[in-house]
Amino acid sequence: MGTGTESDGSSRSDDEWERFLRESVAGAADSPKEPSARAREVAKRLRAEPDRGPEGPRNYTPARPKRRMGWYVVGLLTSLVLLVVALAPGRMVDLIAGEDTDSPSPAETARPTRIPPAEAAQRPTMNEPFRGSPAAGWASGAAGITVPKAGAVGWMSAAEVERALALSRDFLVASGLDLGVLRGERPDRAIALINPHQKDVQDLLQTAFRTPSEKDDPLLLFSRFQPSRTHLVGDVVKTRGLLTYREGERGAVQVTADVTFVYPVTRADADGDGEIVRTIVRRELVLSWDNPDKVVTEPGTFSIVSYKYDMTNGGCGAPTGYFTPPFGTDRRVDQAGTEVDPYDRNTPIGRGEPSGDGCARATRS
After folding, report:
1. 294 against 39, higher pLDDT
2. Is residue 140 part of a domain?
3. Which residue, of 54, 70, 258, 289, has the greatest Cβ tally within 10 A?
C-alpha cells in the first residue's frame, strides 16, 4: 500500500496510515458527532413528508400477543355464557328460541286487528308459569287493563266519568284478580259496586253461591277456584284488555270492559314440580252508570247491562261455582266443541252462558 501525503506535502509512515484507517472504521473517542451533509439532507426530507407509520423490520409488531388477547376474550365470554346457563337455563333456551319473555307488550288501546304470533313451545314452570305463552309479555293485574282519558258524556262531567271508569276497573280487580276471591271466597267488594236495586242480578247473586246452575253461576261474573282442588301458581295473574265508554240510554254513561285473564294453576296437593295448567278467561261486561234522576240506583254503583265470557282449561260438565282445570288423566276435551285460540282478542266473544257439557278446545294455552 502506498504512503499518504500531508497537506503541507510531508509524508505519513505506513504505521501511522494504518492506525488512521483503523480509527476511521472503529470511530475514535474524540471523533466529531456532527452528522454528515447527506444525513442532514435525508432527515430534512423525512420531516417534510407525512407520517407513513412504522416501516422496516425494526418496527414490526409480532402478532402473537394479539392472538393471546383474542383467546383471553373468547374464554371470558364462554365463561359468562356457561354461568348464565347454570343460573337461568330456561332463560337461555328462550333466547335461543327467539322468545323474549321480558319484553312487555304495549298497552292495548283498541281492539287488536291480528292474533298474537305463536310462541316457542316451552312448558311453564313454577318459577315461570307464563313461559311459552303470549301472556308472558302482558302486564300483571290491574296494570293490563287500559283506562281511556275521561271526557264529559251524558249526565256526567269529565271528573265524574273518570271516577266511573276507575270504579269499573275496581270491579274487574275485585271480581277477577282478588286473591281471596280466586281462592273461593265470596266477592263482597265486587258485589258492593252493583246496583242493589237491579233485581235480576241480585236474584242471580242470591242463588249462584248457594246452588250454582247453568243459569245462576258465579263464574258468569267472578273467577273462582276450589282451594281443596286447585292452587294458583304464585300471586300474579296476567291481563290484557281495555275499557271504553259512550252515552247509553236515558243519558247514562255506558262502560264496556273487554279483558282477558290468564290464571296459572296446579293441583292443590302437587309438590314443587306439579303440572301447570293455564286457565284463560276472556270477559266482556257492559256496565251502565245511570242518572239517579231517571233510574233508581245508589251512588257509586252501576247496573249490569250484559255479560259474556269465553273460557278454556276451566273444566267441563255441570256447574260447580268454580273453575275446574283438567290435570293429567283428568283432561277431557269435547271433540265436538268449538276450537278457540284463547289469545285471539280480535274475534268478538261468542260464548254467553255455559252450555252444559260443551267445552271449547284451546289451540294453545
Report:
1. 294
2. yes
3. 289
Q: Is residue 149 situated within a structural domain?
A: yes
Q: Say if residue 12 is exposed, middle or buried (CB neighbours under 10 Å; 0-12, 13-18, 19+).
A: middle
- How does DSSP assign 114-162, residue by residue? SPPPPPP-----SS-TTTTSGGGGSEEGGGGEE-PPP--BTTB-HHHHH
pLDDT confidence band for 130 (50 / 70 / 90): very high
Beta bridge partners of 282: 260, 310
What percentage of the chain exceeds 90 in pLDDT? 54
Q: Of all residues in the chain, what percent carry a pLDDT higher than 70?
A: 66
Q: How many CB atoms lie within 10 A of CB 364?
A: 17
- 312, 365 Cβ separation under 8 angstroms: yes
Domain annotation covers residue 25: no
Domain that holds residue 288: 134-362
The C-alpha angle 13, 15, 18, rounded to 5 degrees, equals 110
Number of domains comprising the chain: 1
Q: Please report, to the nearest 10 degrees, the dihedral formed by the alpha carbons of residues 141, 265, 111, 307 taken in order.
A: -90
Asked if residue 319 is part of any domain, the answer here is: yes
The confidence band for 155, taking pLDDT boundaries of 50, 70 and 90, is very high
- Local confidence band at 114 (pLDDT 50, 70, 90 cut-offs): confident
d(CA 300, CA 311): 30
Burial of 71 (0-12, 13-18, 19+ CB in 10 A): exposed
Q: How far is CA 207 from CA 105, 144, 215, 227, 296, in A?
A: 40, 31, 10, 21, 23
